[in-house]
Recover the amino acids of this structure.
């Protein structure tokens, strides 16, 4: 499966918009891009998924350019509770995949008051 | 409420002992997974199961064993052959297959060798 590259860490302040970019140069035609959030000592939680262009939900937005070789997770007006590790995953969105879903080290976002 | 329950939350193991981590889901998901997470690291896949009575090795299966006798349950045994078992273990499930969308994770079991 496509390998992803994300920044190891990011700092922000409350109320700011945070954009985390993920590179996935080898993304396949049937791959989707999915982001998860993980708090310390908890399991990851699904945030958002997209295939192309822009996807928005109540938590975040996901921007995917036409070539799909990267994606950007946008968190509007972050708060202290958004401090977490964010993982970018790339893989097929159907059953029976023979690939291996890879959770890299993710991006550790620290939000300061 | 539907979800995944992992137990115990904390587990201590003596050298040479086998221990079993429990994972139960009531989401009616077909697929279940076990991941291991070390401090500051990502998740690594240990085993996964796409259907009852069938399971496959992940990247780091050595020293671990699993069973899938019921759809709802996917216990993980950490055997004495696992050289460095101290870690945070996460169980997950999904509707079917190994798609990234719709993974639901449990709250994890922290295993410590004493």
């Amino acid at each position: 499966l496509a390998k992803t590259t994300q920044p190891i860490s990011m700092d922000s302040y409350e109320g700011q918009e945070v954009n985390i970019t993920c590179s996935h140069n080898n993304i396949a035609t049937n791959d989707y891009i999915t982001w998860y959030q993980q708090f310390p000592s908890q399991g990851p939680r699904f945030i958002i998924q997209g295939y192309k262009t822009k996807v928005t939900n109540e938590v975040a937005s996901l921007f995917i350019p036409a070539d799909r070789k990267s994606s950007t997770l946008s968190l509007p007006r972050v708060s202290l509770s958004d401090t977490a590790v964010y993982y970018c995953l790339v893989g097929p969105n159907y059953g029976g995949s023979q690939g291996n879903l890879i959770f890299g080290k993710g991006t550790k976002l620290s939000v300061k008051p | 409420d539907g979800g995944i329950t992992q137990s115990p939350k904390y587990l201590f193991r003596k050298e040479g002992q086998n221990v079993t981590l429990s994972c139960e889901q009531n989401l009616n998901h077909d697929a279940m997974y076990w991941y291991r997470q070390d401090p500051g690291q990502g998740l690594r896949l240990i085993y996964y199961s796409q259907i009852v009575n069938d399971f496959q090795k992940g990247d780091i299966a050595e020293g671990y064993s699993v069973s899938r006798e019921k759809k709802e349950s996917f216990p993980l045994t950490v055997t004495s052959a696992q050289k460095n078992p101290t870690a945070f273990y996460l169980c997950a499930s999904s509707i079917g297959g190994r798609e990234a969308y719709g993974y639901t994770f449990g709250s994890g079991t922290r295993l410590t060798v004493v």
